[in-house]
Design a protein that fits this description.
The protein has about 375 residues and is an alpha/beta fold. It contains 13 helices and twelve strands. Strands 2-8-7-6-5-3-4 form a seven-stranded mixed β-sheet, sandwiched between helices. Helix 3 runs parallel beside helix 10, helix 4 packs parallel to helix 5 (about 130-135) and helix 4 crosses helix 9 (about 250-260). The longest helix has 25 residues, at about 280-305.
Length: about 375
């Protein structure tokens, strides 16, 4: 048999590639924060990480778990779920874990939306949302933020259609840091059809100090359509271990368990998360110091003339428009990496005081944005 007849028999075509899903065409890439430079003194304020090392006792726990790498992890994360259930006062059956809250978010989209369905969220918001929606084959419906950089909940409610299956609310919002307060959230939820899942993405919950910003777990208790996302990547300082969780009523939590990658959360991550929960006193001290730094950075930037939205997260936002790339480059020249969103602005994570100081020095020399005019 000749080579050409072999190709004909098998149906293969020289140079052809396997057929992939059209939903992947034009898929936006997730852009991580710039890493520290390998040489020189550099402060990484680009990834919303906790700048401090693991909490007391956590590293030792993780090292001990690493000694069992030849074994599969607990697929059901039993000890971690029991610890969370006790602390949050929820049934274990209302909990599900995943590879960071973004992993759980992807599972939620898989469980609710497919081709022809819509997923609604504010924009700009967490940049993984459009990626995980497009991968599912569903359609993103992006509702612009308000002029004050917050969720436009009235416009979001107006955008709900009979194809809407899932709504993401990032509270506080990434990258702007702006919060949704209790009264406006409840009004919004009252307008959402009961068969549409509303996800309160609370990755930065521990940094909130405004008493009017609700705890999503309290909202979920009597609203079966609400699911709450949390993570150990931010306040708890376990970004490198990838463990997050959802709190939801049984049908949603069960769907998350069905869509989970088997053994996806390592035993190191599970044990470190439990140890982190048990180091609450040290956690509160570290979070308090970061909140104090957030206040200091915000106040000094405003004193320089910058317009800085209120942030209830561990970062601040500067809307720079066309000057975004130049500002990010100036920061990097001075040993600070920030997260630019080209043509829009920069997100600046709160880091070590020395790094925050360098950021402020750079901002001072960069020609601050004039303050907005006020009515007289």
């Amino acid at each position: 048999m000749t080579a050409s007849s072999q190709h004909s028999a098998t149906g293969s075509v020289p140079g052809a590639s396997p057929r992939l899903r059209a939903a992947l065409d034009g898929l936006p890439a997730y852009v991580p924060g710039r890493a520290r430079a390998t040489t020189g003194r550099t402060f990484k304020l680009s990834s919303n990480e906790n700048p401090y090392p693991p909490l007391p006792g956590v590293l030792e726990t993780a090292v001990a778990a690493a000694g069992r790498l030849n074994r599969y992890p607990d697929m059901f994360s039993g000890e971690l779920l029991a610890e969370l259930a006790e602390r949050l006062r929820v049934p274990v059956s209302h909990l599900a874990v995943g590879t960071g809250s973004v992993g759980v978010a992807q599972q939620l989209v898989q469980a609710t939306a497919g081709p022809g369905d819509e997923v609604l969220y504010p924009w700009r918001s967490f940049e993984a949302y459009p990626i995980i929606v497009q991968v599912s084959g569903a359609r993103s419906v992006q509702v612009p933020l308000t002029p004050g950089e917050g969720h436009d909940l009235d416009a979001m409610a107006d955008a709900i259609s009979d194809r809407t299956r899932l709504i993401f609310l990032c509270n506080p919002n990434n990258p702007t840091g702006t919060p949704i307060r209790r009264a406006e959230l409840l009004r919004f939820l009252d307008r959402v059809p009961a068969d549409v899942l509303v996800v309160l993405d609370e990755a930065y919950r521990e940094f909130i100090r405004d008493p009017e910003v609700p705890d999503g777990v309290e909202i979920y208790r009597d609203r079966p359509q609400v699911c709450v996302l949390r993570t150990f990547s931010k306040a708890y300082g376990l970004a490198g271990l990838r463990v997050g969780f959802a709190v939801a009523h049984e049908p949603v939590a069960a769907a998350l368990r069905k869509t989970a990658v088997p053994f996806g959360v390592s035993q190191i991550a599970q044990d470190a998360a439990v140890a982190s929960l048990r180091a609450e006193e040290a956690l509160l001290e570290r979070v308090a110091s970061l909140v104090d730094e957030r206040t200091r950075v915000t106040d000094e930037l405003r004193a320089q003339g910058w317009t800085v939205p209120e942030s209830q997260a561990n970062f601040v936002w500067l809307r720079l428009g066309d000057a975004t790339a130049d500002f990010a480059a100036a920061c990097e020249t001075n040993g600070v990496t920030v997260r630019p969103f080209p043509g829009e602005g920069v997100r600046i994570s709160i880091g070590e005081p020395e790094g925050n100081d360098e950021l402020l020095r750079t901002a001072q020399t960069f020609a601050p944005v004039p303050p907005l005019p006020t009515d007289r």
